[in-house]
Amino acid sequence: MTNERPSTERKALQINLDPRRYGSFAEIGAGQEVVRWFFRVGAAAGTIAKSMSAYDMAVSDAIYGECQRYVCRQRLEDMLTREHTLNIERLKEQRGDSTAFFAFADTVSARNYHGTNECHGWMGIRFQAHPRDEDSQIIIHVRMLDNNNAAQQEALGIVGVNLLYGAFFLNHEPDQLIESLLDNLSTQRIEIDMIEFSGIAFRHVDNRVMSLRLVQLGLSKAAMFSADGEVLQPAEVLYKKPILVERGSYRPVTHVNMDMIQAAQKSFRKEDDVDPDQVVTLAEITMRNLRANGEIDLQDFLARVDTLAACGMTVLISDYFEYYRLAAYLSQYTKKKIAITMGAGSLHELFEEKYYTQLDGGILESFGRMFKNDLKLYVYPLMDRETGELTTVENLEIAPELRKLYDYLVGKGCIEQLHAYNPEHLSTFSREVLKMIQSGDDEWKKHVPPEVASVIQKRGFFGCKSHAPESRLAAMVAANSSSFGNIPAPVGFPV
User: Fold this and answer.
1) What is the pLDDT of residues 34-43, one digit of tens each?
2) What is the Cα–Cα distance from 76 to 436, expressed in whole angstroms?
3) Average pLDDT over every residue of 462-489
């Protein structure tokens, strides 16, 4: 793919002039912003079988079936299913041998008159890559960041054309397809925080890799997926839920990682304003951590998330190196309590002023932002293996000039020591476990959960020797890594 990006007009016209492409547009919420481009550039009769909007809820329900919310994934799926099915039923016999049918849909909440609503939308395309082919599909979730309705509509139209163009002409290069979604736009106008590929054209695509790609390219600051690999839209998972996060490298997942999160869960669920059945627990990996050795190692990334999946963990990949930015990101989805669990060593780093020189208010501004939404830190002890002494909230060494701030936060309950930990795991350090795996020392198995040990051995993760020479992971890497590591890394934050 060249550095020169085709204009939106050129993309729309190229689609219109492709005799294979023919389908429907169904758009709800911000106007028919995407299909307008195809009418505007000319030759639309060769592409558009139907264009429609169903703004009235009763009308929309009559066409697509009832749903609880109108700007949601389920409504988009219903729209794609109905429109694509109708196209094939009505037109297959007449032109099915030469036409690759498609249905494009979006359901959007653009800025209202008072500016009080969340500006976001779901957008997708279901299509045949070739005539008579099985269906393929791409779904994205967008957040519109312009401060007026007209600009949001314009941005929505552009990203829609980019999605259609990518589906038709870049489906064999999904990483380039993702990169092209913001052609003629910027991350100041549109954020894409979820993408999912499915169907015959994307049978080799791992959507977790595509989620990472969103964050790597800057299209989103965070991406999320479940233990079974399903891509999740953060707002739908986190909305009005209490949230508990553990940040880690997970190279590999050890007993300490799981003990820390379990101890924090016990304390968090006892909080007066936390419904234990509603708690969302996340294992977070930062982009800085993934880039610790330079460019992102795709095989290493998949090893980490597969071992987390073996533990049933939901994974958050984020570009929020500073904890206060992570807290701000989570708080936009919930007013419930948010907690972060960390080791005593990480807490010590949190109080090092050198990390906050980019803020006018320094460490005070950082902590003011971090704790303003009733955030809580749960702290796991650090053991000195030579002396057996534990570093805890009570005896953590803090710079004298910050001692009063630290004592205030502890006294207020913002920082709390974890007590329900297993002392047997305190001597485990992930770097040492990684070295054991790579050197063939079987002692590493004692330091990780059994399900993690099984996955590492079976798939040869982290340099483990006892595995079959060709693995599922190798196939995934080959399918997803065509140009993955060629993006320069932004300056990171060392917390």
Assistant:
1) 999 999 999 9
2) 48
3) 55
Q: What is the pTM of this model?
A: 0.89
Handedness of CA 399, 404, 407, 412 (dihedral sign): negative
415 close to 377: Cβ distance less than 8 angstroms: yes
What does the alpha-carbon distance between residue 490 and residue 7 come to, in Å, rounded to a whole number?
A: 27
Cα–Cα distance for residue pair 88/80, rounded to 1 Å: 12
Over residues 465-476, the pLDDT tens digits come to 865 444 455 555
Q: In the numeric block, which tokens belong to residue 54?
A: 């169903």
Among left, alpha and beta (phi > 0; psi -120 to 50; other), residue 306 is: alpha
Of 164, 57, 151, which is closest to residue 102 (Cα–Cα)? 164
**Is 144 within 8 Å of 190 (Cβ atoms)?**
yes
Helix axes 8-16, 149-169, angle to 10 degrees: 50
DSSP 449-463: -HHHHHHHHHHTGGG
**CA 269 – CA 11 distance, rounded (Å):** 52
Return the closest-CA partner of residue 109 out of 139, 77, 144: 144
Q: Determine the Cα–Cα distance for residues 361 and 124; give it in Å rounded to an integer.
A: 43
Please report which helix (H) or strand (E) contains residue 48, including its range: strand 48-52
**Residue 245, beta-bridge partner list:** 282, 340
Q: For 474, phi and psi rounded to 5 degrees?
A: -60, -40
Does residue 121 sit in helix, strand or coil? Answer: strand
Residue 146, SS3 per DSSP? coil
Domain 8-203, classified CATH 3.90.950.20, yes or no:
yes
Instruction: Indicate the DSSP class of residue 353.
Output: G
pLDDT for 148-199, tens place per residue? 999 999 999 999 999 999 999 999 999 999 999 999 999 999 999 999 999 9
**Domain-wise residue ranges, the chain:** 8-203, 235-480
Judge if 8-203 and 235-480 fold alike in CATH terms: no
Amino acid at 350: L
CATH no. for 235-480: 3.40.50.620
